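Incident log, structure service

09:12 report received: a user says their structure output differs between two submissions of the same chain.
09:20 pulled the input from the user's history:
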Amino acid sequence: FVLKVDYDVCSNYGNWLYNAGIGNDPRDSRKFNMIKQGLDYDGNGDYIRLWVPELQGIKGADIHTPWALSSAALSQAGVTLGKTYPEPVVTAPEWSRHIPQRPGGSPHPRGRRGPAQAPPQHKDRGIDFYFSRKKDA
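09:34 re-ran on a clean worker, output below:
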């Protein structure tokens, strides 16, 4: 018997909508990046290995992007895309910076290849900017 004591209907449904890309966010072009979140909060892929046994043979953070691995690496892990594990339906362009691109095939720890770039700051933007109809860049 499991009793979930932190259930919050609004928060949970709001988070599901946001993750699906249809949630309400006042920031322009804001999307939930599943690859980045996986690398940030499950860098070694232990959670995925627990719930997705088909990917157990993939080592380290490569588990977050199995479709980006070489056919040799997939074969060694016992994964055949489209047979033992589905091919991705889509690959979002914003995932590309978190997909392994270094020799050796493993991503930089926490999914970054250097210091994170801070978004440009707009000091003259108060809270009214986000709720007004006119958006000056």
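09:41 both user submissions now match this output. Likely a transient worker issue. Closing.
09:42 reviewer note: The mean pLDDT is 74. The CA atoms of residues 107 and 113 lie 8 Å apart.
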